[in-house]
TrEMBL record:
<protein>
    <recommendedName>
        <fullName>Beta-lactamase-related domain-containing protein</fullName>
    </recommendedName>
</protein>
<dbReference type="InterPro" id="IPR050491">
    <property type="entry name" value="AmpC-like"/>
</dbReference>
<feature type="domain" description="Beta-lactamase-related">
    <location>
        <begin position="3"/>
        <end position="279"/>
    </location>
</feature>
<dbReference type="InterPro" id="IPR012338">
    <property type="entry name" value="Beta-lactam/transpept-like"/>
</dbReference>
<dbReference type="InterPro" id="IPR001466">
    <property type="entry name" value="Beta-lactam-related"/>
</dbReference>
<dbReference type="Pfam" id="PF00144">
    <property type="entry name" value="Beta-lactamase"/>
</dbReference>
């Protein structure tokens, strides 16, 4: 396990466990990838003067012949997980489309071909298919692949040299109890929702950069959910009772979680290479933020839908 806290840019990091790791060791961060996808797409939209309430079909016209979803569905609604799309495209279905450059758009095509289960904006529901669409929009706006757009628009400008989709010498092997798991390649079609490797030091940097870009941050942290939804959610982040932004990520052999408290200039993150670690990760992050907010977030972080 590796953990880190940044307060007004001053960092503290720590590690624990029998495997030697540092703040620069790379773990799979699973659904924390959505933070990167959402922030990069928002930056691309801002640079090109495109509003968040633009219908998705206008930005992905190649999908129009197969479009069965509500034509009013917007970029904001897919990033906020309030699209109402029928949740019919699972990870295995997306992975079966292969690792070619066109696979992600085909995954997005399957998503919109399935249509809507409910009216957009009516209810929050966590669905990775929303981020297959988001990654496809980012690629289309950038005239390249999703990976190329993420690299050019966020990873390189923010100096995130260790964060990426491929393993490296810094990659930490995941474990399920006493069983070491192989380092498997993550399907390209699923990457906008959960494919990145990253480190505590670079995730702290991401949090610091988000806190520094107040316009971007305010857009991300504005709730898109209703009072009767299962949780309060912005764009890629769950929102806590005292203004916290939090989420977790989970893949076989890895658990990750992150908290931002914008009004206190606070970022905290924990990465672990043990499948059963999430309750402990959640308790640790909750304990770190509790003196600043008075809230116990352990259950909320642990239960988050990733």
């Amino acid at each position: 396990m590796a953990a880190g806290v940044s307060t007004a840019g001053t960092r503290t990091t720590a590690t624990h466990g029998r495997v030697a790791v540092t703040a620069d060791s790379c773990f799979r961060i699973a659904s924390l990838t959505k933070v990167f996808t959402s922030a990069t797409l928002l930056r691309a939209l801002r640079e090109q003067g495109i509003a968040l309430d633009t219908p998705v079909i206008e930005l992905l016209p190649d999908l129009a012949p197969d479009w069965r979803a509500d034509p009013s569905l917007t970029v904001e609604q897919i990033l906020g997980q309030v699209s109402g799309l029928r949740e019919s495209v699972d990870g295995a279905t997306a992975a079966a489309l292969g690792d070619g450059d066109g696979g992600l758009l085909e995954a997005a095509r399957l998503v919109v071909r399935a249509g809507n289960e409910r009216e957009p904006g009516a209810r929050w529901s966590y669905y990775n298919g929303n981020y297959f669409l988001a990654g496809s929009i980012l690629a289309a706006l950038s005239g390249t692949t999703y990976e190329g757009a993420l690299q050019a628009r966020l990873l390189t400008p923010w100096g995130l040299a260790r964060t990426g989709f491929e393993t490296s010498p810094a990659s930490v092997t995941g474990w399920d109890g006493t069983t070491e798991l192989p380092l498997l390649r993550y399907p390209r079609t699923r990457r906008p929702s959960g494919g990145l490797w990253s480190s505590v030091s670079e995730l702290l940097a991401v949090g610091e950069d988000l806190l520094a870009d107040r316009d971007l941050l305010e857009e991300i942290r504005r709730p898109r959910t209703r009072s009767d939804d299962p949780m309060t959610y912005g764009l890629g982040w769950a929102l806590g009772p005292s203004g916290q932004m939090y989420l977790n990520g989970r893949l076989p052999g890895y658990r990750a979680a992150m908290v931002l408290i914008p009004d206190r200039d606070h970022v905290s993150v924990v990465l672990a290479n043990q499948q059963s670690a999430l309750p402990a990760v959640a308790r640790l992050l909750s304990a770190v933020q509790r003196p600043l907010t008075g809230d116990d977030l352990a259950e909320a972080i642990d239960d988050f839908a990733a």
